[in-house]
Write a structure and sequence with these properties.
There is one protein chain. The protein is an alpha/beta fold. A hairpin with a 2-residue loop joins strand 6 and strand 7. It is globular.
């Protein structure tokens, strides 16, 4: 049996590939992409257990708005898409991984459309497309207007449900990846029972695919759903897997500054919306030639700094320029952005007549579990795909609407490898050769970290386990949009001490079988907080070690890029 943890697009595609579903992969792999897969990329059908922490369709994918970037149109090419991806990644994208993404991405999109993915079309049946920041072509396919992820998740999950080789297990939390004699041996889960209590379940498996998404809940301002708590990444770290690029967290420039920090898609600016300061000045034209369509890291920093200047007041997003092409602006907004339109109106805004307040919010993690081009991690039998993985595609800053595409491409590859790899399959990671200095020697070995250990104290002065609010506050303060060395060092100390306390509490609870006295939701919250502390601690260490500003990582004490460290750095918890 193959265990796939996570049911976003990466997990769904991994499950379909591992189960040998012929509706996906018909157009094959990119040239040269078959060399490290058993059977030359052939298909072996395996039994798959698809594990979901919440309901089957609840994931980051379900909440994605903008679309899927894909070079399937006559005026575009995978090479052009790759060039845009490389440029957005600020020198840290792996060229081979990006080439696979844009080539196979077009193949997977065509296959899914052929299999019934309900993308938006014009009156003649042609697939519609939009322009987003840092793309040289209009290549972003969308569905349901601004509900692309929801439509994609529902359509592909229907394919999964129809496959008899795939069993879906809902309300099952990943506690740990089990490793025996250096090889994956299975997973330890906590499953909700009929009484809303919990039961521990160990699933034996020599192939595990982690597709658990990101960790936006590290921050108080995020576009991510409540399930995005870094569970797979934390489990991989505890198991000793290599991770890389965790210092690069993308903050989306435009989330609603009121309410639930609802994402206002990049596509809104692609259609012509502009950003204004408190005086009504369009400031992005002063910062970048591409103005509002500059890469996300550029726009997010500009918004953040402008808000600092105006005492924390939000940026205003003005859609009135769209009226030049759409005289009935209210009707256009309702049709093109139905989800955003409904949400803004629920808050009392008529954005067809007035600007709406927006601010940066945590959106996407470029770093993750270090893999090769087939999702293999540094632990034999453990694979990763989607946002929890570091494939080399995203670099220091993700290009808009490349995340769902990466999930499709590398989720499929991970599932294919998991089903076909022989027992002695070798991890084949791409070297960290993505340096700005050609030919510069780069260390390929990970930096070793030690799990923080709680200090021994008198029984009456035990440290308190952190709640979610304190984790979010600490990450925003020390590892937020703009950072500096002194603050990062303080963050490492605080997060390390809190992680040590959480680990000690978890060990004590396990020994006492404390989960029997609590509900599933209560236990999950405790474990999620521990996971957030785990990944947040490593991210803070990584950010402190990168003494430069590059992409989504900005330091006030090192305001420019340093070409001598223009490469990825791996870490491993010893």
């Amino acid at each position: 049996m193959i265990v796939v943890v996570g049911a976003g697009i990466a997990g769904l595609c991994a499950a379909l590939a591992a189960a040998g579903d012929e509706r996906l992969g018909g157009e094959g792999l990119a040239d040269g992409g078959r060399t490290s897969i058993a059977g030359n990329g052939g298909r072996h059908s395996q039994e798959v257990l698809l594990v979901c922490k919440d309901e089957f369709v609840e994931s980051n994918t379900y909440h994605a708005q903008g679309g899927v970037a894909t070079a399937i149109f006559d005026d575009d090419s995978p090479a052009l898409h790759a060039a845009d991806t490389m440029a957005a990644g600020h020198g840290l994208c792996d060229r081979t991984a990006v080439g696979i993404l844009t080539d196979e991405g077009a193949r997977r999109v065509r296959e899914l459309i052929g299999d019934g993915w309900h993308v938006d079309r014009d009156g003649e049946g042609h697939v519609l497309r939009g322009l987003e920041a840092a793309h040289c072509r209009s290549r972003v396919v969308h569905a349901g207007g601004d509900a692309t992820g929801k439509v994609l998740e529902l359509d592909v999950s229907a394919m999964v449900k129809a496959n008899p080789n795939i069993t879906v297990l809902e309300h099952a939390f990943l506690n740990d990846v089990l490793v025996r004699d250096g090889h994956v041996a299975g997973v330890r889960l906590t499953v909700r029972n009929d009484q809303n209590g919990v039961e521990t379940r160990v699933v034996d498996a020599d192939r595990v695919v982690l597709a658990t998404g990101g960790a936006g809940r590290l921050y108080p301002y995020t576009t991510n759903p409540s399930v995005a708590t870094g569970d797979g990444l934390a489990a991989a770290i505890r198991a000793g897997a290599q991770v890389a690029d965790l210092e690069f967290y993308q903050f989306h420039p435009t989330a609603m500054a009121v309410g639930e920090h609802f994402l206002v898609s990049e596509a809104v600016r692609g259609e012509g919306a502009v950003l204004l300061d408190e005086h009504g000045h369009r400031f992005m034209t002063d910062i970048d030639p591409k103005a509002e369509l500059a890469p996300r890291d550029v726009v997010a920093r500009a918004n953040f700094r402008t808000m600092q200047v105006q005492g924390g007041k939000p940026i205003m997003l003005d859609v009135s320029p769209m009226a030049k092409k759409n005289p009935d602006l209210a009707e256009f907004l309702r049709h093109r952005f139905p989800t955003i339109d409904a949400y803004t109106r629920s808050l009392g805004f008529d954005w067809s007549k007035e600007p709406i307040p927006v601010a940066p919010a945590a959106h996407y993690w470029m770093g993750g579990i270090r893999t090769d081009l087939f999702g293999r991690s540094s632990i034999p039998g453990l694979y990763a795909a989607g946002e929890c993985a570091r494939t080399g595609v995203q670099g220091a800053n993700r290009l808009a609407s490349n995340s769902l595409l990466e999930g499709m491409v590398y989720g499929y590859r991970a599932g294919l490898a998991a089903a076909n790899d022989v027992d002695d399959a070798v991890w084949q990671p791409q070297d960290f050769d993505n340096s700005a200095i050609e030919g510069m020697p780069v260390c390929q070995r990970p930096m070793e970290l030690r799990m923080p250990v709680a200090e021994t104290r008198a029984h009456d002065v035990r440290p308190q386990v952190w709640d979610r609010a304190r984790i979010e506050e600490t990450m925003w303060k020390h590892v937020g949009v703009i950072r500096d060395g002194e603050s990062l060092s303080q963050g490492v100390r605080e997060l390390g001490a809190a992680l040590a306390t959480a680990n000690a509490k978890d060990a004590a609870d396990t020994a006492e079988n404390a989960e029997r006295q609590t509900t599933y939701a209560q236990r999950v919250t405790t474990w999620e907080n521990r996971n957030l502390l785990t990944v947040g601690y490593v991210a803070a260490v990584a950010a402190g070690n990168r003494c430069e500003s590059r992409g989504a990582h900005t330091r006030q004490d090192y305001p420019t890029a340093n070409p001598t460290i223009a490469h990825s750095i791996a870490y491993r918890m010893a």
